[in-house]
Structures are given as C-alpha cells and as structure tokens.
Amino acid sequence: MANGPKYRVPFRRRREGKTNYHRRLKLVLSRRNRLIVRSSNKHTIVQVMASAVVGDKLLAQSHSTQLEKEFSWYYNTGNLPSAYLTGYLCGLRAKKAGIEDAILDVGILVHDNRMKAAFKGFIDAGVEVPHGEEWFSENSEDRIAGQHIADYAATLSKEDSKKYKKLFSATLKKKGDPTKIVDQFKKVKSEMEKKV
User: In the chain, where does DSSP find H-type helix?
Assistant: First the structure.
C-alpha cells in the first residue's frame, strides 16, 4: 500500500463503491428533499430524505417486500414491475405527507433499469422531480408492467415445462401465475391508490 505525506486513504463508503461524496455534497447543498433509489439483486428501496446537520431525516419510504406483505404481490421483488410499484407506493406516501417536490439521488448506479422504473413510479404518483423525458426508453411502459415476463413465461411453458417450473418456482409456490403478471400489476397499483 502506498504511504507518504501526500497519500490519503479514501473514505470507507467510497472504497466500497457505495457513496459518491462529491455528488452527495451538491445534493445536500441544494437544501431540497432527496429522492433516494437503491436496488439490490432482490429488492428495491425508495426513500424521501431531508438533509440536516445532525443527519438525514426520513420523510417517506417504501421497500419492495411491502408489496408481498401488504398488496399480495406473488412475483419476484427484484424485477422492473416491482421496482415501479415500490416507487409508486413511496410517491403516494410522500404526496400524503405533503411533499410536493424532490431531487433525484441515485448514488452509484448498479441496476440502471430498475432505478429508472422506480423513479418513473414515483413521478407517476404525482410528486414533481426535475428530469428529462428522453431518459426513459420508448417502449418502457410494457416492460414496466411486466409484459416481457409474461411473454417469456408463456413461451417457456409451451417449449420447456421443466425449465418453466424451475425458473418460476417461487411464484408458482405462492399460487401466482407468471403469464398474468400484467393483470396483477394493474390490480396492485389500483389497490395502492385506495389504501394509501
């Protein structure tokens, strides 16, 4: 390891690839609420934070596991439809809490499409966040609703039922039908509007 009077070890979260401190400083200095979107392989987390000297204050949040617990979502919580619904749920909660606008904080991008889906869900809930429409792809609506998953599941069930049962085993165990993910997506979205 390098040493000497001018060598400085980066902050731990920078070394781990979790925080870009230059970008974070600009967002905090804006004094606006931050919309934070984070995705892992299995989950999506969407939060609205207010920055303060003593630390960030959580104003509204949603986690993709809440889809299973509160809205009977039988599908994977690490895909595009669940990311969109997680963002939509957080947007509804933020709107209910009186939050009218926020600024996007994506951190270090890992799962780009899921982050965009969650962001789109948050915007569709009615909270104002500055962005450019060209950021979203043209056919994103079908993918966000899960049409690509339904098409793949339908094709796979006809061609290779063994692989179909293996890939969608968690969904089938919960008595869900992967070919009907679009209908369930619409149902959960309307249920959110009623409950929140």
Answer: 12-15, 21-29, 65-71, 80-96, 112-124, 140-145, 147-159, 161-167, 169-173, 181-195
Q: In which band, very low, low, confident or very high, does the pLDDT at 13 lie, cut at 50, 70 and 90?
A: confident
Q: Rounded to an integer, what distance in angstroms lies between the CA atom of residue 131 and that of residue 135? A: 8
pLDDT for 1 beyond 70? no
Helix (H, G, I), strand (E, B) or coil at 53: coil
Report pTM: 0.89
Domain boundaries, the chain: 16-195
Q: How far apart are CA 153 and CA 79, in angstroms?
A: 14
Sort 68 into a burial class: Cβ within 10 Å, 0-12 / 13-18 / 19+: middle
Top-level CATH class of 16-195? alpha beta
Q: At what angle do helices 80-96 and 112-124 cross, to 10 degrees?
A: 40
